[in-house]
Write a structure and sequence with these properties.
Length: 294
């Protein structure tokens, strides 16, 4: 695959993922766990098809040997998916997506004790700046009664960081296969939680179809595009291109639904995005244009 084609696929993935908040707003009655169940039900078959075409049964045989890393990856994605859905339901899309974008910096911090990868000085500066942005946004959320949504977004970011570290640690996993495991785990956990709460997985047909379409097209197809494109794009540039999702998500709900966010949200979000962008640019320059993510 050429570099230009890789860029195009990664950008397409970011655009698809940016639609998540808008689609969540179209769901009327389904709660967080019901949305998680049906969204995963739409995503899992797509990723199963992608993995089957890419490596036949070999990929699934390797998944069986992923062990604790596979379990951590699956559990991390359950937290990431459930936290993101709840955050998008409990606070503004801008607030949720800005806080969720901190996952890359959480990963840098956790990679130090887990993978023995030292945190570079520039990344520490980015973490300090991002922490200030997170503080501004969480304080704003508490002031307007959306503190639980902010916390859920941070839990989501932490869950995705755990997933990323598990995938990087285990050779039997890659992004697509790890998300496939996470999708299966999400369906199981959502069903158990709903049963424990006395709720049902059954929701209005419209809500179920919207959630399944979100899983199949936005998450499943988006992940397939990102996985394919990431092989031809340097890691630092991937981090920058990932900001497409963060920038577009608030624009969709503003343009189509008239949803806005507070000044504190945008101030904190600006600090967070500046930290992530600066760190990504520094990583890209340090690793060089030829450094391609495996």
């Amino acid at each position: 695959m050429t570099y230009r084609a890789g860029i195009g696929l990664v950008v397409l993935a970011g655009i698809l993922w940016s639609l998540m908040g808008l689609i969540i707003r179209l769901i009327d009655e389904a709660n967080t766990w019901q949305v998680l169940f049906w969204r995963s039900a739409g995503m899992v078959p797509v990723l199963f098809w992608v993995l089957s075409r890419r490596s036949g049964g070999a990929r699934f045989a390797r998944l069986k040997s992923s062990g604790w890393a596979g379990a951590i990856a699956a559990a991390g994605l359950v937290a990431a998916f459930a936290g993101a859905i709840y955050a998008l339901q409990a606070t503004t899309v801008a607030n949720a997506i800005f806080l969720y974008s901190a996952a890359s910096l959480f990963t840098a911090i956790l990679a130090w004790p887990v993978l023995k990868e030292p945190v570079q000085p520039a990344t520490w500066v980015a973490i300090a700046l991002a922490s200030l942005g997170i503080f501004v946004m969480v304080r704003e959320g508490l002031a307007i009664g959306a503190g639980d949504g902010n916390i859920a977004a941070l839990v989501s970011a932490a869950g995705f960081s755990a997933f990323t570290l598990a995938v990087r640690h285990a050779r039997a996993l890659d992004l697509a296969s790890g998300v496939f495991l996470g999708g299966l785990a999400s369906m199981a956990v959502a069903a158990i939680v709903l049963w424990g709460q006395g709720d049902s997985v059954l929701v209005p047909a419209r809500d179920a179809l919207i959630a399944m379409a979100m899983g199949a097209l936005v998450l499943g197809f988006g992940m397939a595009c990102y996985t394919a494109g990431s092989r031809a794009v340097p890691a630092g540039e991937l981090a920058l291109l990932g900001l497409i999702e963060v920038l577009l998500a608030p624009l969709w709900v503003w343009a189509l639904l008239g949803e806005t966010a507070s000044a504190g949200t945008f101030a904190g979000g600006a600090l967070l995005l500046a930290a992530i962008t600066g760190n990504a640019l520094w990583l890209s320059r340090r690793r060089g244009v030829g450094a391609v993510q495996a």
